[in-house]
Amino acid sequence: MEKGLGVLYVVSTPIGNLEDITLRALRVLKEVDFIACEDTRHSMKLLSHYNISKPLVSYYAPKEAQKAGFILERLKMGERVALITDAGTPLLSDPGWRLVKKAVEAGVPVVPVPGPSSILAALVASGLSICPFAFWGFPPRKEGELKTFLKEVVAYPGVHVFFESPRRVLTTLEVMAQVWGDREAVAAREVTKLHEEFIRGTLSSLKEELAARGEVRGEMVLMVAGGEGREEPWEEKVKRLLEEGFSLRDVAKILKVLYGTSRRDVYSRMRGALEGS
Q: Are 107 and 6 in contact, with CB atoms under 8 Å apart?
């Protein structure tokens, strides 16, 4: 390869079943100069299984901003880097977006090496009508913040997809049922692993079944059917959020997440909504 800018490979790795890694992922991991990963000990076990010996650089959330700059400098020197996460596809509720953003801004090629994703694996086996869907990551931990978030996306017509921990899933299901009503829902546990399980029903029935087990184990993908698609107009949404005590900045953040538009467009539409009031 011509010495110039390096290449950043965003590589998906197995989420449980080691047979799920792709041939391309194995080749890339063997060819790069080093691998950026969340937990070096965890990744070492994975790489050892495939007889891959490469230098590892820890790249985890608290150090993401600092390490992104270091890795970018190495990329600028012409090195090839693979970004992986502990399991699945990087950036999906895992570190990585800062590094990818910096690489893109610096003109460094960013190459996806697709593969396992617990989100897609859970969706396709859920039995729900999955197009469209929205992935929200982990829901807010505080009950008040969770209720506010759920109210804001109540009308979204597609499937809502979340990651949730076994410690919080019962509370989350209860609050969802309170805010959204008893919607159809599926919880996927240990996806691709030996004890893979799909629990199907409604929000309340899922809560009852998991609560009856006493101890809930394994992080899960939680999927909930969407609303009726009746969307609150922008103008009304802005006014209502301001009346509820949200600052303009907070309102802008909420709208940016809901509509996936740019910050500039959000503020422009907010001004239009306020001027028209």
A: no
**DSSP assignment string, 115-184:** ---HHHHHHHTT-S--SSEEE--SPPSSHHHHHHHHHHTTT--SEEEEEE-TTTHHHHHHHHHHHH-S-E
What does the pLDDT look like over 229-255, one tens digit per residue?
555 666 777 787 888 778 888 888 777
Range 42-45 contact pairs with CB under 8 angstroms and sequence separation of 24 or more: 42/86, 43/84, 43/86
- Strand ranges for the chain from DSSP E: 7-11, 34-37, 56-58, 80-83, 110-113, 133-135, 159-164, 184-189, 197-202, 220-224
Instruction: Give the global pTM.
Output: 0.80
- E strand or H helix that includes residue 75: helix 64-76
Integer Cα distance of 54 and 44 in angstroms: 9
Q: Which residues contact 8 (CB under 8 A, 6 or more apart)?
A: 75, 81, 83, 99, 100, 103, 108, 109, 110, 111
Q: Find how far residue 157's CA is from the centre of its chain.
A: 19
Task: Answer whether the bond into residue 132 is a cis peptide, omega within 30°.
Answer: yes
CATH number for region 7-116: 3.40.1010.10
Please tell me the least confidently modeled range out of 105-109, 144-148, 163-167, 241-245. Answer: 241-245
Q: Which fold has domain 119-224?
A: 3.30.950
User: How remote is the C-alpha of 118 from its chain's centroid?
Assistant: 10
In the chain, domain spans: 7-116, 119-224, 234-275
Nearest to 51 by CA among 34, 30, 35, 33: 30
Check residues 7 and 269 and name the one with the higher pLDDT. Answer: 7
Instruction: Give pLDDT tens digits for 64-93.
Output: 888 999 999 999 999 999 999 999 999 998
